[in-house]
Amino acid sequence: MGVLAALALLGASATSARPAYCPPIRDAHAEVVSLSAKLGCYEVGHVALVTVRSSLGYYKSKRWYCRWGQGGTRPVHHHAHVYYAGFCASVPSFRTVSFLGRRLH
Description:
Blueprint: H1 2-16, E1 25-26, E2 30-33, H2 42-53, E3 58-60, E4 64-68, E5 76-78, E6 81-90, E7 96-103
Antiparallel strand pairs: 1-2, 2-7, 3-4, 4-6, 5-6, 6-7
């Protein structure tokens, strides 16, 4: 019985070790998918969306620094669309989350 209980606990911890992702977020100009949920979904999702909409490819504020589609980023094909990788870092801790984004026409 002890072995079965240990295997059940091991299986539960392996499941919870998977990274969590936020639901996709979009507006009339951009879409963000596969956003890591490490720093929460709501605020980071909106900041990532602003970054993707930016013609500069980055966003900077007192709390956030984000970059998107820069530095030789390769396109990622996902559900018949092309996305580019980006990240947002919280300031000053510089804990980062990653995302995929695309501009909408």
